[in-house]
Automatic annotation (TrEMBL):
Keywords: Acyltransferase, Transferase. InterPro entries: Acyl_CoA_acyltransferase, GNAT_dom. CDD domains: NAT_SF. Signal peptide: none annotated. One of its GO terms (molecular function) is acyltransferase activity, transferring groups other than amino-acyl groups. This is N-acetyltransferase family protein. Residues 28-192 form the N-acetyltransferase domain.
Amino acid sequence: MLEEEYNPPRELPAHLRRRPAPEPAFAYSIRDAVEADLPDIREIYNHYIANSTVTFDEDPQTLKELRAKFRHNAKLGYPWLVAVSPSGQILGYANVSPWKQKAAYRFTVENSIYLRAASTGKGLGTALMTELLNRSKQAGIKEVIAVIADKGAESSIAMHKAFGFKEIGHMGKVGFKFGRWLGTVLMQKSLK
Ligand SMILES: CC(C)(COP(=O)(O)OP(=O)(O)OC[C@H]1O[C@@H](n2cnc3c(N)ncnc32)[C@H](O)[C@@H]1OP(=O)(O)O)[C@@H](O)C(=O)NCCC(=O)NCCS
C-alpha cells in the first residue's frame, strides 16, 4: 500500500480552498472604423474565407482590395463599424456596401458582419448590428439585404431573423466551395 493511500491528504475546508479566478467580463466599445483597422479587419475576414462557407470568397482578401472598398464606402457616407476590446484588439466589424452599382439601387445596401471566432455567441453581433442599422438609417439608406450561405451560417440567419429581416428568396447551388454546392438565402429589412 502506498503511503498516501494509508494516510490520505486532508482536504481544506471549502472556505479555505483557492477559488478559480473569475472569467474576465467580455467588454468592448463600438466606434467608426479607420484605415489603421484594415489589417485586423482583413485578418478576421480571411479566417472565414479559409475555414468556412459563410463567405463565397476563396482567395484571401488583399489589403489593397479592402482599402479600395473602405474608401469607396466612406465616400458614400456608409457606416463601417468596429468593436474594440479594452486593450485595443479589434473583435469584429460590420459594414454596408452598395447592393448594385446601377443608380436606381442607391437606397439599397448589402450588410456584412464578421466577428473573431472567440468573440461570437456573446451578444456582440447583436450590438454591432443594432448600431449598424441605426447608422444606416441616419445615412439615408432605406433597404438592407443580407446574402447568407444556406449551409454553415445558421447563427447569421437566426440573428437576421431576430432583427426583423424577412426571407425574400433562396438561390440553390449558386456557389461551389470545399467540394460542395452551396446556395444563398436572401433576407431583407426596411429601415422605416
Ligand atoms: C453571425 C454573427 C455575426 C452573430 O453574432 P454573435 O455575437 O455570435 O450573435 P449574438 O450572440 O449577438 O446572438 C444573436 C442571435 O444570433 C443567433 N445565434 C447566435 N449564435 C448562434 C448559434 N451558434 N446557433 C444558432 N443561432 C445563434 C441567436 O438567434 C441569437 O439570439 P439569442 O441570443 O437571443 O438567441 C457571428 O456569430 C459571426 O461573426 N459569425 C461568423 C461570421 C458570419 O457568419 N457572418 C455573417 C455572414 S452573412
